[in-house]
Amino acid sequence: MLNVRKASFIITMLVMSAASWAEDVREEKTLSLALANVAAAAAVEACQAKGWLVSATVVDRAGQIKAIQRADGAGPHTIDSSRRKAYTAASLRVNSSDLVQILQKNPAAAGLTQIDGLLILGGGMPIRAGDEVIGAIGVGGAPGGHLDDQCAQAALDKVQQRFAKDQ
After folding, report:
1. Which among 67, 83, 104, 109 has the fewest CB atoms less than 10 Å away?
2. Contacts of 74 (CB under 8 A, 6+ apart)
């Protein structure tokens, strides 16, 4: 039978282990496949309504592909463009069009263009749940990055509508 002193020691060690474990394990929000598909479809539809044939890629918080949609007739290059824009937005947690302006104002940031996988053109935007980046969307194929941005924003608006319904 355990005496009180040994039992107290064991309980203390268990509590300390649990507290240490809680500090070492992070909880993160993540983007579901269903939401990724909603976002990709919304971006492609928004561009198609304006006559632009694009691809939209949605990545998770780590920049890994969750969903891709390519409009009928969109160029084959639009898939890679949209993927890289999404990866850029997820990695740097900022709109890719903002990076274009940052590079123009700060030549010291030019090294960003040398990082594998990044594409610093308009059309990539982080997807946020509150302040946390849970993924990103990239759109490629409209006649200008500022127009890709419009379609990506339409997707973010659709995602926010879903978040509002879930609350």
Report:
1. 104
2. 53, 54, 55, 141
User: Exposure of 45 by Cβ count < 10 A (0-12 exposed, 13-18 middle, 19+ buried)?
Assistant: middle
Residue 41: count other Cβ atoms within 10 Å of its Cβ. 16
Q: Are 92 and 99 in contact (CB under 8 A)?
A: yes
Is residue 164 pLDDT above 80, yes or no?
A: no
pTM of the model: 0.84
Whole-number Å distance between alpha carbons of 43 and 91: 20
Rg of the chain over CA atoms, in angstroms?
A: 21
